[in-house]
Amino acid sequence: MGDPREPPEGTPDGGSGNEDEYRSVVFDESFVRAARIQELSARERLGSNYSRAVRSRVGLGPFGSLPRQAVALLLLVVLAFAAAVYFGVSSPRRQAAQPTGNQLTVSLVALSPSSAVTGVDPKNPFAGLPTGYADGAAGLGTPSGTATAHFTRTEVTRALDTVQRFLVTSSLSPAGLVQGETGEVRSLVTLGEQAQYDQSFGTPRDDQHHAATGWLVRFDPGQVALADNAVKVTGSMRVAEADSGTLEVTTDHTFVYALRPAGTDVSAPVSLFSVRRELRFEFDRSDIGAARLRLVDSVLQSGPTSCGAQLADHLQPILATPGAASSTPPAVDPADHSRPAWQLCGTLGRITG
TM segments (predicted)? Predict the structure, then answer.
């Protein structure tokens, strides 16, 4: 019997009867998908929109040979990535993370002496002060933390601790007073105010916003030295709520410093210099957690000093020196617009408790 795989009439002349000889002209699916032209379907050929039996295929480059499912998945991945980038850049939460902060407003008031500045006992410079003053932080009168309507006792206590650290660093530390140290105070200021803080020390000016002395008490070390590292203090702190999410701490203190001219020895005359600081701080819960504060308002009165002294960079005390003369506050001309209206000067009275 013949081979069942052979045709009934036998093998055609000139042929082997094997399918292998046609394998070279059989087109697989990838070859068909890669074709640049495509034959129209019967329905399309019956229509009048095409004048040719074939149409060109849109090239997809290296993606043209991919299965449709793979192309669809790739498009979904691209769209998801684009959406993630868009919402990551424009989302309100990301924008809110940028530091903003309130801008500090500063008022500087010079207190001019009504008579010549006289010296005090170098061995006991604070002997003439009335009762009510204490040494350093003991005179700050920091209250114990008490819960408010929207802040817990722990949160209020942490805010008060941060304010006390700020007052000690900015008003009592010799490093800040006469050595030019500014980094410790900066570390307590919220991130949103640090740019303004840096500008205040980089280019200090009395424009109500960029006075270095609005942030801390400091003297020019080339002109002034501390005759005693002790600082006498009296004053108080008050806690309130600006709103349900903002805790407000207001402080009002008078600091008395014993000063002498820089470069002199212990025999040089010593004089007292008074600084009143009224400050207003604000905290939100993130500030409390980070132990940082926002200094919103700073009012500083200092004397004895000349009414014409520039106080934005350093305070300018009039020291007790031989032959010192009195300084009378000048008359103010309200029509003189060359001087800012907020620059104030008063007459220094006797220091009281």
Answer: 70-89
